[in-house]
Amino acid sequence: DISRQIEQLVDEIPFTIHKLQTFSNILQEKLDLESFKFCFTVASSLISELLEKYKMQKRSLRHFVGQLISQLQNENIEDCLTQLGLFESPDAKPKATPKQDIGKSPLDLTEEFSLPLKSSESNLSAFSYSLLQSLEGCDMEFEIKESEPCLAPGGSTDQEKTKCNSTTIKAHRVIVSSRCP
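Above: the chain sequence. Below: its structure as tokens.
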């Protein structure tokens, strides 16, 4: 079963290379520079994530990668897989490699987009704070009613009256909606 899957993967390599060439031609014809940068960032991050998953499963993939290298018999591919950390050649001397944080890859280009800015560094945060403080153009009001029971001088509970105090707080819908989940 595994050997059949390996043969199938090896047979698909030329087709994949052809597809990559076709994809490259389409990119050159249809994408402007900004779109290309975005697509490249997303694709390289996905590839990085995939490589990290393969590194975590390196032990179970060792036999498959060894068979792949022996069938392809290409020194460049072996060197590439060794540099990526997916293969250790049997004749290579073990090297003392520093431990890397598996959760953070040097190829992950989207990390900066997924981490929120600190509020002290964010222009949006500074603008929202000034909008909150100025109360100019408030488009929303909250009314908080506080009721305090008052007893009538006769002491009858039937004639109990309530005294209402109300406080109005002005707000901006933008700020309220940004703080609500």
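The first strand starts at residue 140 and ends at 150.
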